[in-house]
Inverse folding.
């Protein structure tokens, strides 16, 4: 067994604190990873605070992980000791259903759906019954930790052209926005709206522009208009009725990155005939909308969940090729609770990334 240290929430109301635990050594098809960096996702905050009602404690968050391979199992051929690799939102799936066969593991139709990098399967009934975070022979603890052991099929290659620390958020924020842009075939010349300019919105703008789209950002915060313009896009306040009305029937595609439930009615009139409004940021219930607005323009209201393993590798390669990377701020693990407060309040203009050297030093000093 491998001694590990992580930062965990032990209750929905508690701060994240150090937690000692063990990882299992690599099996034949597994890879051991020394964690170097881990992004801080808004989903981490939701999960730690049990906003979705399915958290199993203690909960070690983190699913935007970059590290270096320290050991591989005997049947592993895609990764070698010393490789720079990434782990995103999933570490396993049933591998037998139609979604898995199609490379869409995020929609796994197995009895437990996919196995999340932390907090266990997406349908964690068995874990909830036992009251523990055990799944198989390991705790499903995430990347706010010193090490990780993962099946090689769910380990990604980090392109050399990407800044190591900036690669971490691409493994969630990147693929979560890239997947719908690709699925709805956004192309050069399309008019794309991005709702919200947080960690997801920042990546959505950069990816859509790299695909050649003309991008407009919709925000409720006046200060973010200037930020949108710095990204080479137009910014529109949702409260500006004249500006919103002037954009009716202008957009081929609108992507909502807001992490909470929100009204979609203001955006449906902005879609062209056959246009689509897709939400990726919110798992909460959304307020009602006018079905007439959809019917009269054959418009689509839809959602999208992260991306499959092949698609995650694709977005990493795309970002490396086009020079796309999130704006980040490196923090030590000891500042994670303050970072959570800023993520919750929306008082953050970048993606936090934890430097795990700070955790390893804490482990050495213990």
């Amino acid at each position: 067994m491998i001694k590990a240290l992580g930062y965990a929430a032990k209750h929905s109301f508690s701060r994240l604190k150090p937690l000692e635990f063990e990882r299992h050594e690599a099996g034949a098809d597994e890879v051991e990873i020394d964690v170097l960096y881990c992004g801080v996702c808004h989903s981490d905050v939701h999960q730690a605070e049990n906003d979705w009602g399915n958290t199993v404690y203690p909960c070690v968050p983190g699913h935007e992980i970059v590290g270096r391979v320290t050991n591989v199992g005997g049947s592993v051929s895609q990764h070698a000791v010393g490789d720079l690799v990434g782990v995103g939102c999933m570490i396993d799936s049933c591998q037998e259903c139609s979604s898995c066969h199609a490379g869409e593991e995020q929609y796994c139709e197995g009895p437990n759906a996919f196995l999340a990098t932390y907090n266990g399967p997406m349908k964690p009934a068995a874990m909830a019954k036992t009251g523990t975070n055990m799944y198989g022979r390991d705790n499903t603890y995430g990347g706010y930790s010193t090490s990780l052991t993962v099946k090689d099929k769910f380990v990604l290659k980090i392109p050399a052209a990407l800044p190591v620390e900036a690669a971490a958020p691409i493994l969630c924020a990147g693929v979560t926005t890239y997947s719908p842009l690709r699925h709805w075939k956004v192309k050069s010349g399309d008019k794309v709206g991005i709702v919200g300019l947080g960690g997801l919105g920042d990546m959505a703008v950069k990816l859509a522009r790299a695909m050649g789209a003309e991008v407009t950002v919709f925000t409720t915060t006046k200060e973010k208009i200037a930020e949108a313009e710095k990204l080479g896009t137009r910014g529109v306040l949702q409260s500006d009725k004249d500006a919103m009305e002037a954009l009716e029937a202008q957009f081929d595609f609108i992507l909502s990155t807001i992490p909470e439930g929100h009204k979609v009615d203001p955006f449906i009139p902005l879609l062209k005939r056959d246009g689509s409004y897709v939400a990726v940021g919110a798992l909460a219930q959304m307020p009602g909308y006018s079905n007439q607005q959809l019917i009269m323009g054959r418009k689509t209201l839809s959602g999208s969940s992260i991306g499959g393993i092949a698609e995650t590798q694709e977005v990493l390669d795309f970002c490396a090729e086009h020079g796309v990377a999130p704006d980040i701020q490196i923090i030590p693990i000891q500042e994670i609770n303050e970072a959570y407060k800023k993520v919750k309040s929306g008082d953050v203009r970048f993606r936090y990334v934890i430097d795990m050297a700070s955790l390893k030093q804490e482990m050495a000093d213990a």
